[in-house]
Amino acid sequence: MDPVRNPYAPGAGQRPPELAGRDEQLAAFDVVLERVVRGRPERSLVLTGLRGVGKTVLLNALRGQAVRRGWGTGKLEARPDQSLRRPLSSAVHQAVRELGHPEPDHVLGVVRSFAERQAGPDAKLRERWSPGIDVPAVRGRADSGDVEIDLVELMTDVGGLAADLGKGAAVFLDEMQDLGPDDVSALCAACHEVSQTGLPVIVVGAGLPHLPAVLSASKSYSERLFSYQRIDRLSRAEADRALSAPAAEEDATYDEDALAAMYAATGGYPYFIQAYGKTVWDLAPRSPITRSDVAVAAPEAEAELAVGFFGSRYERATPGERDYLRAMADAAPPDSEDPVGSVATADVAGVLGKKPQSLSPARDSLLKKGLIYSGERGRIAFTVPHFGRYLRGQAG
Predict the structure, then answer these.
(1) Cα(225)–Cα(262) distance, integer angstroms
(2) In the predicted model, is pLDDT for residue 251 greater than 90?
């Protein structure tokens, strides 16, 4: 098979040639966009799921829908060591520019005041935000220093600007679980305020499975504030389409046994499908691609995943954290089909021969790094599907 014509895209956040299995979410978001512009009550949206299920890809696709409808949009990625002010200011600045309002100066000044409040009045020049906004900051608006008050004022003004044009504005926020507690609270309060006033502004967030719990811990009403959509692995039919449709565009096919073998190997996880698809295509001698071709390519695909998908995450852990991760893998039942290896924290401590309390620092650090999550009290799981299987296959 010609590698130049290889249609698969296993890059991080890279849109696959066939966005299979997400038609429902795309159609529902079209309804949200239309309802918001018409002043109908609608909630902001939160996508949750494991690593590798395509949350970022879907987030980008939803943003594309908003752009095509003339909305102003901006995107940012939350980081555990970074305040929300500057990256959100950049995202909102972009949204204002996309709206194309003939008189945006006041709102741009509010964006600037919101961002500059982080540095403080005595900050050095290098600590100040340089947004490319020529208008001066608007004093007394979004600059109180209380991020909750300031964000409500910022979103309210952006919503008013969008409403003037009969359009909407949307902020797309990836890795939402990494927001700090104050920023989570502020974001919830801002979404609550704009929804109550009917302003055409929404937030579309994406994060790990425990994100709803993070939001609920901040504001009890967050359960009613957002529409939660769990993004999961693809069904067999959807996975087949993700493989077959791009191949057909290049005049190639898979036989039925090959598709079955691909689903067994990838578990229907979109990132794995793209990774396997790329390797199988490069190594298959001709079309149609067969089960034998999948078997030949599997070791190379697994080796690629071991380095780029699993290994890169494992390397981020300290030696003590790696011991904890391996213990999680060993604590799972050997015949378990659970892709995230959910186990009790007490069982992990038992494998290591230590008291659970002594392992809290390692566990908490892994939670902050996004390598594990806690879906329920006393239990933890990997954020990466089949990470336990990878760890059990490693020597030492």
Answers:
(1) 39
(2) yes
